[in-house]
Amino acid sequence: METMTGFITAINDLVWGPPMLVAILGTGLYLQLRLKFMPITKIVAGFAMVWRGRKAVPGAPGEITPYAALMTALAATVGTGNIAGVATAIAVGGPGAMFWMWMTALVGMATKYAEVVLAVHYRETDDRGEQVGGPMYAIKNGLGRHWRWLGTAFAIFGGLAGFGIGNMVQSNSIAGALDSAFGVNPWVSGVIMAACTGFVLLGGVKRIGAVAEKLVPFMCVGYIVASLIVLGLYAEQIPAALMLIVDSAFNPVAATGGFAGAAVMMAIRYGVARGIFSNEAGLGTAGIAQAAGQTKNPVESGLIGMMGTFIDTIIVCTMTGLVLIVTGVWNSGLKGAALSAAGFDAAFQGFGGQFLAIAITVFAFTTILGWAYYGEKCWEYLVGTAVEVPYRVLWTVFVLVGAVTQLDFVWLVADTLNAFMALPNLVSLLLLAPVVVRLSQEYWAKHERNRQAALAAARSKA
Predict the structure, then answer these.
(1) Is the separation of the CB atoms in 312 and 74 below 8 Å?
(2) What angle do CA 369, 283, 363 make, to 5 degrees?
């Protein structure tokens, strides 16, 4: 096992090393330039589209509303990375890591936009009459039969990675948090989680979407409100915290307290890596969920989808980062969830651990649901819709297994498979970028013509 662990660790260090981070950031920057920074300039339009997407689109193909599709994608992305991931990035890379997480998110918005546009544009109808899409379908239908092996590779890596990073790792985090904060036996946590997961999965994407559109806004708003309370108590520290973030992004941070010090490259490496881990821009997963959403135009789905990256990193991750810095715990020597708990504990006086346990439980459980759908669609692409029932049963069993076992090796393997997922997706994004640009230009040109026609009609009536 030690030999195998060492081998997988070496592969993981390679695939998540600087070349991969450069590839993901470079692809996002390339797409931003090709789109003339439209994903950033249309943030307000994106929020407006999310709001309108709460209602069903008459006559549009899809199983759930665009809003429910976004919440399903957010269910999978807003998770332990927003709490423990941010804390680890700052504990190792310094406050400057937060700045590079922001940059990763702004670039990643273009990546996520393109992923969703392609997923919806090239989606198919399966033998049950449901809309399915994602990088595997974009590769198959967009790049042609000679590239189908690449779509198959994505589906295999995604189907396997889900059982680790989207299932066992999450249930293990929940069981550990509840055991530490409330003394709940991991077997009890595991059985309850498995029962809840099985109940939701029995209803398919419609039930997953229905649960996500209720639970995700609740958990995000609740976490943001709690963070704002902490920031309100330490309001006088916020300007200095923001200055420290920007300064540390470009200058080394000296050792202080329990912080060992960090070079600028450390801030960049951990900020980018944890940013990608948190918002999943570049992995292609969001397109799988958004392809089930009702829409008549892939660009509108893309606008909604890219807001997931903005909400996940620019809003939720920033809350965690600021709490750690304004409370002064970032250089305490703690890492991960323990560091985040210390930050909230500074304001909530002894209840930080309990609050974080509840937050991790809700965040990680929704990740289990979101990734369950991702994995199911990957296996459906590979072997057909007959996989649905056995897959859901197996996924539910693995929730229980993850809660009661040690998962260091599973985490390592799943993290490596995530990188292998990214590679086919990045290739398809680069090769199909002209399609994204064309669809975007056509959409906004039509939008402008409609606006001009509306203005002319209004003037004629006046």
Answers:
(1) yes
(2) 30
